[in-house]
Write a structure and sequence with these properties.
Layout lengths: L22 H34 L13 H7 L5 H5 L5 E3 L11 E3 L14 H5 L45 E5 L6 H4 L3 E3 L9 E2 L10 E2 L5 E3 L4 H5 L6 E7 L5 E7 L8 H5 L7 E5 L6
Antiparallel strand pairs: 1-2, 3-10, 4-7, 5-6, 8-9
């Protein structure tokens, strides 16, 4: 017999004894994997939908005028959207998922569109069917110290009318100078032009233009030697003024000063020409002496 081994090129490939996976089996396995991924995503999504509201609910939201304290408001508001529909400047929006446990409840983003009381009678309060927005709290609901207004606010647009006041008893927040270093008044600077730019869609009524019809702020440019827009456009009499104040080093300068008449409407925040705003409303804040 020859000792030479057969040429490897003449060998036939070895056949595997492992069972082949059918196309149908592969498709079944693929569907199983996809189902597992989708179920996992669904479980995580459900978990996050419960977790995110808890996280974001820590951020205070500015509610419409006449709103009850937050817990009572969330308990009584049926999310009907009636207040949204009657707001003449579309200041009221419905909160979405990232707005916490109050998803679907009305809120105001004052920087985008403040409440300027163009409706005079505060129609959102009149439209609310449950008393979540109300002129007068029932006796069993307490009033937080500092939330009560010392007097009914005088609406400048109605100052010469027989009844110039708004029928509000509690503020929805308080304006604060949150970035004094950016304030143009403190810097002694004026302002000329459109306060929030040509593309800003926010509206407000101007007495010199039309007492009853709000117009775009972009259509009302300013030209002031010393910036006073927050005080100039505040709709509530005596809520904000520009006053001379003294710095710690003894130097004096002009500065916006917020007074107890402030109701937290947010007009000052909306018209502030610096970005980010130098003055802002702190939602549900109370007056502190």
């Amino acid at each position: 017999m020859s000792d030479e081994s057969p040429d490897s090129g003449d060998r036939k490939p070895a056949t595997s004894n492992a069972p082949t996976v059918s196309i149908a089996k592969k498709q079944t396995n693929r569907r199983r994997v996809l189902r597992t991924i989708l179920l996992t995503g669904g479980v995580l999504g459900a978990a996050m939908s419960g977790f995110l509201p808890l996280v974001y609910s820590q951020k205070k939201r500015l509610r419409p005028p006449g709103a009850l304290d937050e817990k009572d408001f969330l308990a009584s508001c049926i999310k009907c959207g009636q207040c949204v529909q009657v707001c003449p400047v579309s200041a009221i929006k419905l909160a979405d998922l990232v707005d916490g446990m109050g998803v679907g409840t009305p809120m105001i983003d004052a920087r985008s569109q403040a409440c300027d009381f163009s409706c005079d009678a505060v129609q959102c309060v009149l439209a609310c069917p449950t008393g979540s927005l109300t002129y007068h709290k029932p006796n069993f609901l307490p009033v937080r110290t500092g939330a009560q207004l010392s007097a009914k606010p005088i609406l400048l647009a109605k100052e010469k009318d027989t009844e110039p006041t708004l029928n509000l008893n509690e503020r929805i927040g308080v304006a604060r100078l949150v970035r004094p270093e950016a304030c143009l008044a403190i810097q002694g600077k004026g302002f000329k032009g459109q306060t929030r730019g040509s593309g800003f869609t926010g509206k407000m009524r101007y007495m010199a233009v039309d007492r009853w019809k709000p117009i775009k702020i972009a259509d009302h440019p300013y030209d002031v030697a010393e910036c006073d827009l927050c005080a100039r456009e505040c709709p509530i009499k005596g809520a904000i003024s520009i006053e001379t104040v003294f710095a710690p080093d003894g130097s004096k300068h002009k500065s916006p000063v917020v007074h107890e008449a402030c109701v937290g409407c947010g007009v000052c925040e909306m018209v502030c020409p610096v970005e980010p705003t130098a003055i802002a409303v702190e939602a549900r804040e109370v007056w502190k002496v």
